[in-house]
Amino acid sequence: MKDIFLARTLICIAFLFSHSVIADDANLEYKIKAGYLYNFTKFITWPAINGATFNLCLLGDDPFASDIDAIEKKSAFEHPIEVLRLRETDFLSGSSMKTDCHILYVSASIDLTIVFAKIQTSPDKAKILVVGEGENFATEGGMIGFVNRNGKIKLQINLHSVKQTGLKISAKLLEIAELIKEDKP
User: Fold this and answer.
1) pLDDT averaged over the chain?
2) End-to-end alpha-carbon separation of the chain, Å?
3) How many CB atoms sit inside 10 A of residue 163's CB?
4) Model pTM score
5) How far is Cα of residue 143 from the mean position of the Cα atoms in its chain?
6) How many CA atoms lie within 13 A of 142 on its CB side?
7) Distances (CA, A) of 137 to 1, 85, 89
8) Where are the alpha helices (DSSP H) in the chain?
9) How many whole angstroms separate alpha carbon 127 and alpha carbon 110?
């Protein structure tokens, strides 16, 4: 009887701690993704950067919370980095497209078809790196997609989408990514 009580207690403790480990894993995942977003500035070249800041825009739900704010202490191409959080309604109405986004992170909560169509009509589309997450992000037309494989964050790069811009991705970044080469019909 004592052994059964001890076993049940251990199972309950393990169950309680497993939830905190999962939450910590999610925090770690978005810290890693935030690091990637910053490091893209070292391995991707943009056409002329106008404006006083290099803008990293987050569209939709913000999974990074305050983890991404540390990037604002850094710079890219001799411009301070500014993190801008965009609301979906503003983006789709066009009011936030006036914001000069150099990197646009599209949250998983957003309808990709509508966002990609809006970006295609933007006069600044040639200088926007569109990044998101999930197995289908890059295959659906995003440029760089984060995928979680066996607990590790991997990159997928859609070469066709990148080719339509003025962005140049270094061979070093291409080496570590899974390349999506097929043209979307």
Assistant:
1) 82
2) 66
3) 11
4) 0.81
5) 10
6) 28
7) 53, 20, 21
8) 2-43, 88-93, 112-120, 159-163, 171-176
9) 21
